[in-house]
Task: structure prediction
Amino acid sequence: KSIAVSPQFVTFLLGDQCARMRAYLHKTAPYVNVPLSPLVDGAISVRRSKTPSINGAHAHNHLLFAMLHLICRYEIDEDYEEAKQGFPIPEQDRRRIAGSAGGLACALFIRGTMLPCIDEAEKSLAERD
Result:
């Protein structure tokens, strides 16, 4: 029986451990699945407190990296002949992905600015009654 068809080998190839090993061999940073909610909460805590926590600072840095990555992304034209052959695409033929970081920026604005204002308004209305 070939190792290529065994379920354990296929599971390994599709798993996180293999992805980290490939990233290490390619001298890239390993893939890490970071939950978005703690990341946003940590970045917001950095903005609000005078002395942010270590986790908040890490979350803020990770979020800045994610935003920069989204802003710098390009569309991939599948029909471009050089791309099919593995050659780099000339700079003038690339197109940025419009609004790629917009959803994350909106989430930060809503969670960091709007929701606290709504909570304060609800508290002040409750005090009036």
About this structure: The mean pLDDT is 78. The CA atoms of residues 42 and 106 lie 16 Å apart. Helices lie at 7-14, 16-25, 36-48, 54-71, 81-84, 102-128. The two ends are 76 Å apart (CA to CA).
